[in-house]
Amino acid sequence: MFDLVCVKCGETYPADTVLYSCRKCGHLLEVRYDLASINITRRDWLSRPLSVWRYRELLPVKREPVSLCEGGTPLYHLKRIGEELGMKELYAKHEGMNPSGSFKDRGMTVGVSMALQLGMSSVACASTGNTSASLAVYGAKAGIPTIVLLPAGKVALGKVAQALMHGARVISINGNFDRALEMVRDLCESKGIYLLNSINPYRLEGQKTIGFEVIDQLDGKVPDRMVLPVGNAGNISAVYKGILELKALGFVDKMPMMTGIQAAGSQPVVRAINEGLAEVIPDENPETVATAIRIGAPVNAEKVLTAIRGSGGTAASVTDEEILSMQCDLARKEGIGVEPASAASVAGVKKLVESGVIDRDEQVVCVVTGHLLKDPETVIKQCAPPIECEATLESLLAALQL
Ligand SMILES: Cc1ncc(COP(=O)(O)O)c(C=O)c1O
Ligand SMILES: N[C@@H](CCOP(=O)(O)O)C(=O)O
């Protein structure tokens, strides 16, 4: 049993309402379960495969889910990078190992299942890339039409390729992501299309399972800190909400310090946290190589401030150089291939450890959100080209200087 509840005024709406913001005050909604009626133990969960659907009692979907085996992603120990930082317990949860290569699949398996549960026949989103790729995949699996709006020229190649190949109608708009989101909200409202950006409270329910899995992978222990890259701020807010639910159920007894990392050219949340502002003031012209988090007006602004402040966490920004350097370190020192936005979380830890904000003894889990192959162009630009060689052993040895 669950309701939709306004995070600001507390107005409630019945389960299975198609609604993205409070009719009374316009603020964000979240799904609230009647936790007392939930009859589940951790042991029951642990008897099921590690996946989004292990936690189905804390998800709103009642029908057969639209699923491609999302979740169950690896939690890697960052041994070498940790050693360099003097940290024994630094981990990365690799969300790039989901079906479409990003954490968005956790949201979309739930969101698209809810679209069908609510009787909606088409879906849409605005995207910096991954949301569109994921929605195209799950729309295809569900057999319903999908529309995605992308900021022209600012979406990594792999993500556009996915959206096109999986059959979405891809619209490239002459404006940034924030404008695309405004447009798709108007489109969905006027045409009765189901909106699947992170303003959709059901979609975020799927994403909270990142935190559940981390705790299960750490044998029931809550890490001291979880560090996530922040763009539209849905993911960090969802993980916080999920762990709060586990605490209310008595499954865990503390919260991780939720720590958000943004790019220096796009850091409205960092400013709000560092300056103690009551609200996030949008960046008009966000810019960063990490195009996934090139977002100036995060739609989940009020949720992310609650998550960070409510958990005693923090926020920090990293430069594009720091992001790319950590992308390279993850690839070469740990064998973990991620896209630039994902590397921001680990780059943020490095910065916060070096400045003394993060204690070296903390157990820290970084969420690395998307796969290396999402953005091949940025990768190729950073690497020396292949060495050309004639097809003889002699030339090969010369090329290898052996
Ligand atoms: C790879 C990647 N990392 C991080 C983010 C940021 O997540 P959120 O918008 O939930 O803050 C996004 C998209 O927003 C993304 O695609
Ligand atoms: N990085 C995102 C931006 C949209 O965020 P959403 O969580 O609101 O869908 C993307 O991949 O498009």
From TrEMBL:
Question: What EC number(s) does the entry state?
Answer: 4.2.3.1
Which residues are annotated with the PTM N6-(pyridoxal phosphate)lysine? K104
Does Zinc show up as a keyword for this record?
Answer: no
CDD domains in UniProt: Thr-synth_1
Which of UniProt's keywords are assigned here? Answer: Amino-acid biosynthesis, Lyase, Pyridoxal phosphate, Threonine biosynthesis
SUPFAM superfamilies assigned to the protein according to its UniProt record, in alphabetical order: Tryptophan synthase beta subunit-like PLP-dependent enzymes
Q: Where is the Tryptophan synthase beta chain-like PALP domain?
A: 66-370
Residues noted as binding pyridoxal 5'-phosphate in the record, renumbered to the chain: N130, G231, N232, A233, G234, N235, T369
Tell me which cofactor or cofactors this protein depends on.
pyridoxal 5'-phosphate
Pathway participation? Amino-acid biosynthesis; L-threonine biosynthesis; L-threonine from L-aspartate: step 5/5
MF terms (GO), sorted A to Z = L-serine ammonia-lyase activity; pyridoxal phosphate binding; threonine deaminase activity; threonine synthase activity
Which reaction equations make up its catalytic activity? O-phospho-L-homoserine + H2O = L-threonine + phosphate
Q: What class of enzyme is it?
A: lyase
**GO biological process annotations for this chain's record?**
isoleucine biosynthetic process; L-serine catabolic process; L-threonine catabolic process; threonine biosynthetic process
Protein task: Catalyzes the gamma-elimination of phosphate from L-phosphohomoserine and the beta-addition of water to produce L-threonine.
What PANTHER family does its record include? L-THREONINE DEHYDRATASE CATABOLIC TDCB, THREONINE DEHYDRATASE, MITOCHONDRIAL-RELATED
**What family is this?**
Belongs to the threonine synthase family.
Question: Would you tell me the protein name for this molecule?
Answer: Threonine synthase
